[in-house]
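Backbone shape codes:
***
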Amino acid sequence: MRPIQKSNKLAEVCYEIRGPVPEKARQMEEEGHKITKLNIGNLAVFGFDPPDEIVQDMKINLHNAAGYTDSKGMFAPRKAVVHYTQGKNIANVNIEDVYLGNGASELIVMSMNALLNTGDEVLVPAPDYPLWTAAVSLSGGTPVHYVCDEMQDWFPDIEDMRRKITSNTRAIVVINPNNPTGALYPVELLLQIIELARQHQLIIYADEIYDKVLYDGAEHVSIASLADDVLFVTFNGLSKNYRACGYRAGWMVVSGQKDHAKDYIEGLNMLASMRLCANAPGQFAIQTALGGYQSIQDLVGPGGRLLKQRDLAYKLLTDIPGVTCVKPKAALYMFPRLDPKIYPIADDQQFAYELLAETKVLIVQGSGFNWIAPDHFRVVFLPNSDDMIEAFGRIAKFMEGCRKRHGASF
């Protein structure tokens, strides 16, 4: 039989958060091993429940959720998103500018499919949330990674971004708050990115899914609120702020200068219609979530569980010799660095494999986020304190073994 091969469009697509190392972890679980999963921000499995009023509203409305909705989504949740954007000071958004999706992920892929032709380039951060790189590649485009500078709190390097803009560049992706680094970008930096987009007539795609997961009194400013002469496409949803990953309830908002983008918007409408609609039960959760009590503040504020676990994880990691980390100001992750003089790692996927095999702790290697060197990895700080102390203790012991093998001493 002639082998059936995957599409060539998948040749440059990877998603290591659910890649070969997690597959090995799944096999180990089937063999009876208990794996501590620090690889994905799946809040429910760590006891972070969605607000009860969201759950109850979905239950009450479930009998109304069997039919297709409007291809962009139901009126009430889209209107709630309009109000949300107004609260973020994003101007001139109406209900037709809002698209609901099966999570922000579906809409990210849709936005790239509607834009890109073969040879088109999109600036994507390094490190990035890898769906962005995958979506650009799958849509026939070329992801071009601009560097975020660890020495500058993981802020984008504007000059590196400027150097990588060509006549083929169509857009800039901004992930703020950032996954995987936990960086939060100041207004001054966002204005510089806008100026680049303005000069080169680029679209700005703003991934803001963690805009309420903020620590130490930090405030998030939506980049789309800072200009009206650039086209912005902003993504958000219920997965993180409302601990509702499985509800797959996200949205995309088109704002800014739209007059010259009518054909692109027509493409978005076409793709929205082709998938018929987003899941209706998840749509029923949006209005209640956005208009209700914002319980995320209890988790990230003083004494909150997420804040305490961030601080604990930071201490546990940076107490390991040769491990440094920029303390995250937002989101659910840390992206620590391994000093290459102490840990001369050539293949960070192999490092993740070995760590998993020896410690039963699952992480994601830095190259899974399109980082440029095999010297980082990402962990979530979602397990409760006792479990985190246990897991990070096993990582510390593993790193001690690495240091001994490479002759490093402290």
